[in-house]
Amino acid sequence: MNEHKKDILCHCGGQEHNHKSCSCESEHSHEVHEHCSCEHKHEHSAQEGHPHDHCSCSDCSCGDGCGHQHSAGSAKDLTALGISAVLLAVSFLPAVEVFSPWLMVASLLVAGFPLFIQGVKSLFRLNFNELLLLTIAVVASVCIGEYFEAAIVTILFRLGEMLEERAVQKSKREIEALTSIRPDDANLQQEDGSFITVDAREVPIDSIIQIRPGERIPLDCVVLSGSSSVDQSSLTGESIPVNVKEGDQLLSSAINGGGLLICKTTSDFSGSFANRMIALVEESSGQKGKTENFITRFAKVYTPIIMVLAAALAILPPLLGMGSFEMWLSRCLVFLVASCPCALVISIPLSFFAGIGGCSKKGVIVKGSKYMELLSKADCAVFDKTGTLTTGKLSVTRVQSVGGYSEKEVLQVAAAAESMSNHPIAQAIAAHQQQDFHPQISDYSEISGKGIEMVMDGKTILCGSRRLLEENNVDIQALDNLPVCLAIDGIAAGGVEISDSLREDAPATLKGLKQAGVEETVMLTGDNEANAQKISKQAGVDRFFAGLLPQDKVSRMKELKSRHKVTLFTGDGINDAPVLAGADIGVAMGFGTDAAIEAADVVLVSDRLLSLVDAIHISKKTMGVARFNIAFALIVKVVVLLLGAMGLAQMWMAVFADVGVSIIAVLNSVRILGWKGKNY
């Protein structure tokens, strides 16, 4: 049983806890730190003033084959390095010349003892990582009397690890900040009208809560009274506060500005916006791309091969009479140190980690490096119309009546019929429902993509697309080309025109996609031809297809995929889920329906269409950084390995090929987090 000395959030063993007694699968103790993501058996001891600043896990979670100890506790590391450097310097004093070898050995033990312990453990586990390579190189150097070489390699290695770890931790802290937005407390109203602070997990749906100025919104809710400005930057990346008033929806983890708000919760803790976003961020580590999977496989094969080559380099040339064993063993040691694959094993996953984090800062959740790679290659962008290219805020702009019915009667019946549907068009019409009109409705049936069929006050009502009326043999020649048509007892009664406004950032998004390398943009919609053409022209879409049912959209998507390398589809509704799943990359707008978000690979949390362009630019930058790191690491290692085999490389060059290249690659990866975006 693990022991937590304070109420914390622990992710050990893939479980979440927020209590003093933790039953994580890993056996360890936590003292002060608030976030532990280690999956190995170990102990944590936090430095005073550095709550979980560094983790001294015996195994590295940055990737297979690395073997880094990551024990960069600042005070401990600096003390060890300081003592080691002093011992090494003292060993050169003439007065202690006789003890010089022993001082050098003491120096390397102070700096490298924890590294050597892990190297020996790796040997018994048959885990051929760089700590094992370092241990072999140092032991062999001591055996042939190269005490200074052994000490300096150990000191430089420990120093490099410390600097590298600080860079990695900086990147991780920025990403972890994205998952630290979930409020734990809520001000819950009691039966007597007073408010008390309780754990947000204990607040059920439809509870009344109070949100004071400066507090984070604990749960998704709707404002009952009060007005304020709300900072949603932690959710969407948008720095401009949003003004809210009675009736407005609020998302958990946003920060209330200067007003007192009384709200009614619309979700519990587990279903809140913040919880769902955190789940998506954590889920992103599971979907690895081809590049990341290749590096993992490469490290597993590469290190054993290097050890065989190093052994051959130390043994075969002397046996063939090409020089002394000592000379070739020295070259072998340089070869071993230079060969460590850590620059690749750490920096490549970190590149994607930073890329996903950079997207999150722009209000985009990418569900893994697999989709970062695909985003960088997207050459066709397909969009739904309503709620994606348009605002989704529909309104009735025209009513047509035929067959002796008045416009009021047509709108009255259509509104009553559509009041039972959740479709955006239906809701826009239902908003005009008459309070004094209470018909008896029976045999209600909603036909996907077409409309509604039911019996109202004994009359058969059809309300929906022209296709619905045609399939039921209704003569619609008298009706204009309206998106919603009405028939009563098999006779056309009229129609309703619905309008939707274009999103402000839609034209800039389409233009930005072209600049980012997307060759073709397409709009798929179930709306009529006239409305589709109007929106398509305003947005700047290359092509559009109108009057589509959900299955028609899937068919069009298959056709587009066959003609392009990578096709992405952006939509927002439950009807878009099949197309989202069928696209190479599915992009869901905002936190709409659960079905759409589940089917999507990318979620635009901010509901800002332009953030899709940001995500593509970041994905391209991420892939560029990853490719550079791979090429840079391999070129430097190959050069130093060849020079080492020929006796032209010294040990400091080998250390640079390992630790130096790793630090440069890590710092290069962290740059992705600083991407500021472009002007479109």
TrEMBL record:
Domain spans labelled P-type ATPase A: 183-282
Membrane-related topology note: Multi-pass membrane protein
Keywords: ATP-binding, Cadmium, Cell membrane, Membrane, Metal-binding, Nucleotide-binding, Transmembrane, Transmembrane helix
EC class of the enzyme, as a word: translocase
GO molecular function terms listed in the Swiss-Prot or TrEMBL record: ATP binding; ATP hydrolysis activity; metal ion binding; P-type cadmium transporter activity
Signal sequence extent: none
Keyword Transmembrane helix: yes
Listed GO CC annotations: plasma membrane
Top-level taxonomic group: Bacteria
InterPro entries: ATPase_P-typ_cyto_dom_N, ATPase_P-typ_P_site, ATPase_P-typ_TM_dom_sf, ATPase_P-typ_transduc_dom_A_sf, ATPase_P-type_domA, Cation_Transport_ATPase_IB, HAD-like_sf, HAD_sf
Pfam families, per the entry: E1-E2_ATPase, Hydrolase
Transmembrane spans: 102-120, 132-157, 298-316, 328-353, 628-646, 652-674
EC number: 7.2.2.21
Catalytic activity: Cd(2+)(in) + ATP + H2O = Cd(2+)(out) + ADP + phosphate + H(+)
Cellular compartments annotated: Cell membrane; Membrane
Family statement: Belongs to the cation transport ATPase (P-type) (TC 3.A.3) family. Type IB subfamily.
Protein name (database record): Cd(2+)-exporting ATPase
Lineage: Bacteria, Bacillati, Bacillota, Clostridia, Eubacteriales
